[in-house]
Specification:
This protein is mainly beta. It has 3 domains: 228 residues, Jelly Rolls, CATH 2.60.120.10; 116 residues, Jelly Rolls; 32 residues, no CATH class. The chain is 11% helix and 33% strand. The chain contains 7 helices and 29 strands. Strands 1, 2, 18, 19, 20, 21, 23, 26 and 28 form a 9-stranded mixed beta sheet that branches. A 7-stranded antiparallel beta sheet has the order 3-4-5-14-7-12-17, with no helix packed on it. Strands 6, 8, 11, 13, 15 and 16 form a 6-stranded antiparallel beta sheet that branches. β1 and β2 form a beta hairpin. The chain is elongated, with a radius of gyration of 25 Å.
Length: 421
């Protein structure tokens, strides 16, 4: 039963030990938030096979907080050793205009982050490229290509604005950060990582671990003493920072050129496709949603409609409930055992819930409420393949169906007549 469980992994936040709860007294503090709210963060809930909701791990920082959900020790490594990597999820809340997720990078995971609320300015180290390559003919001078950046290829930074439904994709090792630039709303960002044990390096702490003379030489400062006289913060990790006292919001401070890491329009209903059997379900499958190790889809289920029983052939499906009615919305997952103890589990889908449909397990979602159900579905494969139970059964010949169900042809004829075939 642990297959269905998305546990909390307290140690998944960072590779270093401990978390900074407050900054030193001479640093900015968010004890008096710029904006008032009666909601500190969106709960990232987890659901297990027994339909018990587990309390998630919440870490509070000076400029907001992080909530984390993970498989933890319940990931079945023996069963899944030849399958795709599991995903872990973090929900970031930046509570002030100008709040910053400290510049950082991950050495063991790619990152796919969706903006759920507010507006974010994101900066990422650019992909190393050569432009205007001379291929001797001249017809290809306008093309460019990715290159190895050894030794020391200059790497600029691209900066862009994201709104709800936009996302960014960060390959492992690429330095990046994001900040809140909406003066009226907190920033909520949902991040997925393709690892079970996330490792993170924050730039200020990396710099603090070097001898000041090395940092002075790195940044062309006269000497170690001059570098130390700058008074740059070199304490423990801060993770999410409040804005500095002189912060002035300038959302137009972006790079106008290409933005290779930016993904737009995940929630764009104009690009959504209906289910072939017209069951009131539509899904956005924008090609941008397919990146290395990930695929992300946005699905809406109309009132009274459902997602019919299905399984994922080649990966796991993690579903974040973006919006749901408080009641009458359920998910069912069928057990894999083939004996008298076999059963299916049914639980309510609530806004903020994260669920897992493990590869090969049959799942279904029913929206019996009067509100549209909105889901963000993550897959730990870039080309997910889904089989629907209906298609797998009705395509069989009558003899096979009669044998499988221990009945006669007349019974199968009645069954197929009811299916509309």
């Amino acid at each position: 039963m642990s297959t269905y469980l998305l546990n909390i992994c307290i140690g998944a936040l960072v590779s270093t030990q401990g978390f900074a709860q407050t900054l030193p007294s001479d640093q900015p503090s968010d004890q008096e938030p710029i904006r008032e709210t009666n909601k500190q963060y969106i709960e990232l809930l987890t659901e297990n096979y027994n339909s018990d909701i587990n309390q998630t791990y919440w870490s509070n920082f000076n400029g907001g907080g992080l909530t984390w959900s993970n498989h933890g020790d319940d990931w079945d490594w023996e069963r899944n050793q030849n399958l795709n990597k599991p995903l872990i999820f973090g929900l970031a809340n930046l509570t002030a205009d100008g709040g910053l997720r400290t510049p950082h990078w991950h050495d063991n995971a790619d990152e796919y982050t969706i903006i759920l609320q507010g507006q974010a300015r994101v900066s990422v180290t650019k992909v190393p490229r050569v432009t205007n390559i001379d291929f001797s003919e001249g017809d290809y001078r306008s093309k460019d290509r990715k290159i190895a950046s050894i030794p020391g290829t200059m790497r600029d930074t691209e900066t862009f604005i994201l709104n709800p439904g936009d996302a960014f994709y960060i390959p492992r090792g690429y330095s990046h950060f994001f900040e809140s630039v909406d003066p009226d709303q907190y920033l909520y960002a949902l991040a997925a990582f393709d690892t079970i044990d996330l490792s993170t390096f924050d730039a200020p702490q990396v710099m603090a671990n070097f001898n000041p003379s090395i940092m002075a030489r790195t940044f062309n400062i006269a000497n170690a003493s001059a570098y130390e006289d700058l008074g740059l913060y070199n304490g423990s990790r801060t993770v999410i920072d409040s804005p500095h006292p002189d912060f002035t919001n300038n959302p137009d401070d972006v790079t106008p050129d290409e933005t290779e890491h930016k993904i737009t329009g995940l929630f764009d209903t104009e690009t959504m496709q209906p289910h072939p059997r017209d069951n009131g379900t539509t899904t956005s499958t924008n090609p941008q949603n397919q990146v290395d190790n990930f695929f992300v889809a946005y699905t809406e289920v109309a009132p009274g409609s459902w997602i019919e029983p299905y399984w994922v052939d080649n990966g796991d499906e993690y579903t974040y409930v973006l919006e749901s009615s408080p009641s009458n919305v359920t998910m069912s997952i069928a057990d894999q055992k083939r004996d008298e103890s076999s059963d299916s589990t049914e639980f309510e889908l609530k806004s903020g819930l994260m669920t897992l449909c493990t590869q090969g397990y049959t799942c279904t979602i029913q929206n019996d409420s009067n509100e549209t159900l909105k889901l963000v579905r993550f897959y730990n494969t870039e080309k997910p393949s889904i089989t629907q139970l209906y298609d797998s059964i009705v395509g069989l010949n009558k003899d096979s169906l009669a044998t499988m169900f221990y009945t006669d042809i007349e019974g199968i004829d009645q069954f197929l007549e009811n299916t509309g075939l």
